[in-house]
Amino acid sequence: MTTHPAHPGAVSMRTTPEGLLWEPSERWVRGRKGDVTVVDSRHPVLVWEPHLPVPQYAFPRADVRTDLLRPARKPPTGAHTGSRVFYDLDADGEVRENAAWTFPAGDLAGHIAFEWFARPDTVLDHWYEEEEEIFVHPRDPHKRVDALPSSRHVRVEVDGRTVADTRTPVLLFETSLPTRYYLPREDVGLDLFVATDHHTRCPYKGIAAYWSLREGGSRVPPNLLWGYPEPLPAVTAIRGRLAFFNEVVDITLDGEPLERPETPFSRMLRGTSRR
Question: Is CATH 1.10.1020.10 the right assignment for the domain spanning 14-134?
């Protein structure tokens, strides 16, 4: 057993010679393709690969519809740490190439993992932990997301113009990300923004809708304002509220200007700024 340096609270992770980290999960996990349940497991394990910041599930072979798997016709190289055995999935009338694979580690012998993210097509249509649908990737049990109502004074400016001002925010604290300030809609100048068709999914919060500044300058990226109309139960406090990317707006908290953080979103936001 070892402690993952990226997860200081983790004391039960196992490590393998290949550099994989893994630990058992007690969650009941299911994956479906159309009307077909491909995975149904009460004994999954979470696996962290060295080059990925988020975990993946691997399942005992007995919990997988292996009759729907075929040896991959065109197996990739270097896609997953040390893996050489890949499978195509033939389910619900569709074939998904390289949909599943096995890890080489002896500790994980007899387990099969499925692609969830980092590819343009969808391998399985829906994943569930217990009775709750999850998106994008499995939740990291060593990551916290806390949404706390507050009475702090939050003011937001874009290019020197105040676009939001409130004393009733909800502060969302998420491991490894800056604090996000979710503001009541009535305290945001929504007449300055226009709704877009952009949506994202988060395994911790749900499906987000976005707004762009109606008359943004060349330095203002689109989709800088978002909200979760129907957030997941763990963060219901942000329902109907709106938040800005700290990376591209100026936020003043209790009279103190905050520095714009540098995050994994920063490069994306800079790349989408209007030119």
Answer: no
